[in-house]
Amino acid sequence: MTREELLKQQLTDEQRKILSDCSALYNRLPSDLKTKLEGLMHVFLHEVTFDREGFTEVTEEMRICVAAEACVLILNRGYDSYSQLRRVTISKDALKRDGEEWAGWAGRRDVSLQWDAVLHGMKQGNDNYNVILHEFAHVLDQADDAQAQSIPVHEGSVDRAKWEELLKREYPRIKAAYKVGRAHTIREYALSDEAEFFTCATESFFERPKELKKYNPEIYDILQDYYGLDPLPWSRAEEKRIEQKAQEWGKRKFIRLIWMGVSVTLMAVAMFLRVFEIVSDDFFIYFYPVWFLLIIWSQTKKS
Ligand SMILES: [Zn+2]
Q1: CA of 290 to the centre of ligand 1 (A)
Q2: Alpha-carbon span 212 to 37, nearest angstrom
Q3: Domain count, the chain
Q4: Contacts of residue 218, Cβ cutoff 8 Å, sequence gap at least 6
Q5: CA–centroid distance, residue 88 to ligand 1 (Å)
Q6: Is 238 a domain residue?
Q7: What pLDDT is attached to residue 199?
Q8: How many Cα atoms occupy the beta-carbon half-sphere of 57 within 13 Å?
Q9: Measured in angstroms, how far is the CA atom of residue 286 from the centroid of ligand 1?
Q10: To bridge 54 with a disulfide, which of 60, 92, 147, 224 should be the other Cys (CB 3.0-4.6 Å)?
Q11: CA distance 203 to 276
Q12: What's the pLDDT score for residue 197?
């Protein structure tokens, strides 16, 4: 199949279900971008070899999840950004290098990911931590010049100066913030190496767009320009959905309380009538079933 044909392919319902179960970011995407993502994922799955370390097989879930979130980064950049990428290795245990443990690492051609960390990063969509976004941002950073230095455009690019200025200005600001114990939208790990500025900023861009736009609009704008995406409205739409759900839940709870009050009042009235012998015991043969049915109906009916 040619790349053009692959780009037109769609996921199966089962594959979409894997993503909606595992990826908070996928669930936030507007539907037109989801369609675009499916095509890019087919190219990715066609061109990239998956390997495993400690697992007996690479599962469908692993392939679909990695392809999806990796391709979010290139939704509007196109697949060429990953044209040098060859292999993704999924590891069961933490990756070990220089006596330290890592959740992932990446070059231009190879990416290694620890599966548990990947899943955690995907499910928590706003904790500023996402191994896939992080490692594939390293791929993009190195794609232009094989250098991991947080300037993801090649030397002749018209945007080169903009990126150099951004790094020169913003990197010391992050350093200064953490030095005096202040928070910064971009997590502190960015300070471990200059190469981690672009990757951690990418995580914030997709996971905490509201904060990044508010407190570091220059970083947000350059990433918006680079990725050709604006994740802020995606989060707003998600917040609205959560708010609506909470409101509906509150409304349902209120209505149930009212019905509970009605039931208790009815029982009290019935008891009152019996105590003053206005009704006989026979009355309760009819009253109890009706009362129980009323309770069951009021507790099961929707709002
Ligand atoms: Zn990194």
Answers
A1: 66
A2: 24
A3: 3
A4: 166, 169, 170
A5: 16
A6: no
A7: 97
A8: 3
A9: 72
A10: 92
A11: 72
A12: 97
